[in-house]
Design goal:
InterPro entries: TM_pro_TauE-like
Family: Belongs to the 4-toluene sulfonate uptake permease (TSUP) (TC 2.A.102) family.
Structural class: mainly alpha
Subcellular location: Cell membrane; Membrane
Protein name: Probable membrane transporter protein
Strand content: under 5%
Main location: membrane
Order of helices and strands: HHHH
Largest sheet: none
Length: 101
């Protein structure tokens, strides 16, 4: 029961900080997931990588979905969007390389 309460409080804190301050996902969820994974002996060695990757995957999904909705509504120009994809891909490759150092 205590673990469930901690998970609910982490979700509540994430929602409140996101709504009030504009941040919350990475700020609250990454340390929470990290602490959760450190309790698992098999995952403890890669806990930070998994926590950051999980948070990043959620952000990529959310940004992609909102971008798609804006494109469908005609509020996003493909001449602006597609050149940015190169920067996104480059950042992903460089970040992955730096994380492996």
């Amino acid at each position: 029961m205590n673990e469930l309460l901690i998970i609910v409080l982490a979700g509540f804190t994430t929602g409140i900080t996101t709504v009030l301050f504009g941040f919350g996902g990475g700020f609250v969820v990454v340390p929470f997931i990290y602490q959760l994974l450190m309790r698992q002996p098999l995952l403890a060695g890669n806990a930070m990588h998994i926590a950051v990757a999980t948070s990043t995957a959620v952000m990529i999904f959310n940004a992609g979905w909102v971008s798609y909705q804006n494109w469908q509504a005609g509020r996003l120009s493909s001449t602006v969007l597609f050149p940015l994809l190169w920067f996104i891909a480059t950042g992903a490759v460089v970040g992955s390389w730096l994380a492996g150092m």
